[in-house]
Write a structure and sequence with these properties.
heterodimer, A: 461 residues, alpha/beta, FAD/NAD(P)-binding domain, five-stranded parallel β-sheet, 18 helices, 16 strands, 34% helix, 17% strand, globular, B: 283 residues, 2 domains, 31% strand
Chain lengths: 461, 283
């Protein structure tokens, strides 16, 4: 047995130089090498109580996979990960580990927690490098349709395929992956990795149909002619705006639009037909991961970028590492600041963002202290582009075209903890149910729904 | 494979293609659109469903060659395929209960107007079509409109064919003569649709315009296609593309359509060369 590593510090992640990377879209975090991974794995105490696992929405057997890394058995470590997650290379990169598994780690009480996310990424990347075979499971002859190929849909499809179901995934866009492809930028999650994970699902027999728009190209009802159950992972939809003057000016974009042009359409590349707005001074409104992604993309397109967030740094909802990386790359932050108007010229081009200063008042329903405007604190931020990254509302297409599918007042599909909707045989999960959330929560929902779908189909057989 | 089964030039700048796309064809209706990409590096182009054949599994699209993406598309030949073809998108035209309708088409907007005429006639409605073009060389679909409509008026700005003037002249004359319509439907350039809305407003006749804002996904995700209608934010891809023309903020829509104009020139130049090469080969 390898010796225990008592270092209170997490092994640092090698990253590209900020000055260099803020000019390109290459992946920022470079990943552990074998030696670092084993050393980091040796920091794990292998607690019997497994507090880390309780912090993971998909229940990855964390101490067990880390034990394999310690022993240098990386293939076995991958098999352990695969018991719980269909997309380990993705989770290792985009999960907010500091709020989940790593927040529960005993090592974190004195010093840094074990770098669980970094180890997960190492194991997944190592598996891909060695091109280890993914097993094709024995089929059970039952067919399930999955609508949406984002994290919820892919995780549901992966788990069902492992159980032997013949799964068809329907995707509205021309490329599979959902938010992993159109939302999260290349420098945080290389698209080659998403493709690799999706190819893995294809190898397991999952069929993926692109250009298939639920509620338009087909209805949920129609699917029941060919499939026994349907999972709806249609994701978050229409972007929210602030309803302030000037929001429809030229140069105001939703983060969804800005990011889709760059990530899905590659508008930043010379030979792409899709244009992207090239601005000099960009203001990004919001403080989540999407705001960080938009800010860092704008920086890479050569703009001076300021993130405008209405609460303080402490409340910033973004993954800590993303905010740090953004700062290193030269993105500015204006905390306790709220836009009240987008200023424009005669041609309706953006010229600035009028803001007010905020202070934190009483705690609101979410437990966060709600910001209150400070009277007389108005000021103008110069900007020729404003990106709104303040969340999304669910896509209305499926709800509008599926009779009997119950939604809540905000258009989110009503589903229980197992994903069961108001319709027999129809399950749902991810942002379509919860509203804007994280990749890993969507994956967890997809996974639970896969189990529920399995129970449902077995109960009818 | 979305194979181009038929390709035909409607005029020097406008092309009709019949594309094999069974999934889009099986639910397509008048007033809807598709999004296609010519090539793997291509832009997502929203195009009106100009016709469909459910049995054959085909959808017709008509497009004007205006920029890089439409040039790549126009350089495709019969038998070749487009990379992607998604649809149908948008809400179909609401024709229920309409007995007498004036359908106004301007330029390539006639591609949107024609299936609406077809659907209205199929349900027995009386249809007046007014179609307008800049000049004779840009006229498209004249025969189809004449054959399908109860009455058809053709206008050109320069009087090179039909009446001289824009579509509002005959419309205004007919309304002033006291003729009543259940609805006026307009599809064409934004200034034309705005003018139609102003022409019909004093007569309080319900007027619908088919909007064509910039879009990316077309499925209710990017928010790029937002249009202000009656002071509310609407998304053309999921709420439209048709809205009450008397409530649309056309001035804002016209400005928004120019958002990417400064950034598109480079792509256009690159595609011009490719397009020129292929059209020389074809001729």
């Amino acid at each position: 047995m390898e010796s225990y590593n008592a270092d209170p510090k997490m092994s640092p992640m090698p990253v590209l130089d900020p000055a260099e990377r803020s000019k390109n879209f290459s992946e920022v975090a470079l990943g552990y090498d074998e030696e670092t991974a084993v050393a980091e794995a040796r920091r794990c105490l292998g607690c019997k109580a497994r507090p880390c696992v309780s912090g993971c929405p998909v229940g990855v057997p964390i101490p067990e996979f880390i034990a394999c890394v310690k022993a240098g058995e990386f293939g076995k470590a991958y098999a352990k990960l695969s018991e719980a997650t269909s997309l380990p290379a993705v989770c290792g990169r985009v999960c907010p580990q500091e709020k989940q598994c790593e927040a529960q780690c005993v090592r974190g009480r004195k010093g840094d927690p074990v770098g669980i996310g970094r180890l997960e990424r190492f194991v997944a990347d190592r598996h891909a490098e060695e091109n280890e075979k993914t097993e094709r499971p024995q089929t059970n002859g039952h067919r399930v349709a999955v609508v949406g190929s984002g994290p919820a849909g892919l995780s549901c499809a992966g788990d069902l395929a492992k159980m032997g179901y013949a799964v068809t995934v329907f995707e509205a866009l021309h490329a599979a992956g959902g938010v992993l492809v159109y939302g999260i930028p290349e420098f945080r999650l290389p698209k080659a990795i998403v493709r690799r994970e999706i190819d893995g699902l294809r190898t397991m027999g999952v069929e993926i149909v692109t250009n298939a728009v639920a509620g338009r190209s087909f209805t949920v009802e129609e699917l029941f002619g060919r499939y026994e159950a349907v999972f709806l992972g249609t994701g978050a939809g229409l972007p929210n705006f602030m309803d302030i003057p000037g929001e429809n000016a030229k140069g105001v974009f939703s983060a969804n639009e800005y990011l889709t042009r760059i990530n899905l359409m590659k508008a930043n590349e010379e030979d792409s037909e899709t244009p992207v707005f090239r601005a000099e001074r960009v203001a990004v409104v919001g403080g989540g991961n999407v705001a960080m992604d938009a800010a860092r993309c704008a920086r890479r397109l050569g703009a001076e970028v300021t993130v405008v967030y209405r609460r303080s740094e402490e409340e910033l909802p973004a993954r800590r590492e993303e905010a740090e990386h953004a700062r290193e790359e030269g993105v500015g932050f204006r905390y306790l600041t709220n836009p009240v108007e987008i200023l424009t010229d005669a041609e309706h081009n953006v010229t600035g963002l009028k803001c007010v200063k905020m202070r934190l008042g009483e705690a609101d329903g979410s437990g966060r202290r709600s910001p209150v405007a400070v009277e007389g604190s108005e000021f103008t931020l110069a900007a020729d582009c404003v990106i709104m990254a303040i969340g999304t509302s669910p896509n209305p297409l499926v709800a509008r075209t599926t009779e009997g599918l119950v939604t809540d007042g905000r258009g989110r599909i009503a589903a229980d903890g197992e994903g069961q909707t108001s319709l027999a045989g129809v399950f749902a999960g991810g942002d379509a149910v919860t509203g804007s959330a994280t990749v890993i929560l969507a994956m967890g929902a997809g996974k639970r729904a896969a189990r529920a779908i399995d129970n449902y189909i077995r109960s009818r057989a | 494979m979305y194979t181009i089964l038929k390709k035909e030039a409607l005029n020097e700048f406008t092309v009709r293609m019949t594309v094999s796309a069974p999934m889009a064809a099986h639910r397509a209706r008048a007033g809807q659109f598709v999004i296609l990409r010519a090539d793997a590096r291509g832009e997502r182009i929203p195009l009106t469903v100009a016709g469909y054949d459910r049995e054959a599994g085909t959808v017709d699209v008509i497009f004007q060659i205006v920029g890089g993406a439409t040039m790549s598309l126009a350089s495709k030949r019969e038998g070749e395929a487009v990379e992607d073809f998604a649809g149908p998108l948008g809400v179909p035209t609401r024709t229920d209960g309409l007995k007498k309708v004036a359908v106004i088409g301007g330029g390539v907007g006639c591609a949107i107007a024609l299936p609406v005429v077809r659907e209205l006639r199929a349900q027995g409605a009386d249809v007046l079509s007014v179609i307008g073009f800049r000049t004779k060389g840009l006229v498209i679909l004249e025969e189809e409109f004449r054959a399908l409509s109860d009455r058809c008026v053709l206008v050109t700005d320069d009087a090179s064919l039909g009446e001289k003037g824009n579509v509002c002249a005959p419309l205004s004359r007919i309304l002033a003569a006291g003729e009543q319509f259940d609805e006026v439907f307009a599809a064409g350039p934004l200034p034309m649709m705005k003018a139609v809305a102003e022409t019909t407003r004093p007569y309080a006749v319900k007027t619908v315009a088919s909007m064509n804002p910039i879009m990316i996904d077309g499925t209710g995700m990017c928010g790029c296609c937002r249009v202000t209608v009656g002071g509310e934010r609407k998304f053309a891809c999921v709420d439209g593309p048709e809205f009450d023309a008397h409530l649309i903020d056309f001035d804002e829509a016209m400005l928004r359509l120019r958002t990417y104009a400064p950034f598109e020139a480079r792509a256009r130049e690159r595609h011009c060369n490719l397009f020129r090469m292929r059209s020389e080969e074809e001729s």
